[in-house]
Amino acid sequence: MQSDVIHIIGGGLAGSEAAWQAAQAGAQVLLHEMRPEVSTPAHQTDRLAELVCSNSFRADDATQNAVGLLHEEMRRLGSLVMASADEARTPAGAALAVDRDLFSQAVTDALAAHPRVTLVRGEIPYPPADWSNVIVATGPLTSPALAQEVRVRSGADSLAFFDAIAPIVHLDSIDMEIAWRQSRYDKAGPGGDGADYINCPMDRETYERFVAALVAAPKTEFRPWEDAPYFEGCLPIEVMAERGPETLRHGPMKPFGLTNPRAPERKPYAVVQLRQDNRLGTLWNMVGFQTKMKHAAQVEIFRTIPALEKAVFARLGGVHRNTFLNSPQVLDGALRLKADPRLRFAGQVTGVEGYVESAAMGLLAGRMAAAQSRNEAFAPPPPTTALGALLAHVTGGALTGAGHAFQPMNINFGLFPPLADDEAPAKGPRRQRGQRGRDRKAALSARALRDLDAWRSDLNLAA
Question: Which residues of 377-401 are buried (b: 16+ CB within 10 A; e: fewer)?
Answer without folding.
Answer: eeebbbbbbbbbbbbbbbbeebeee
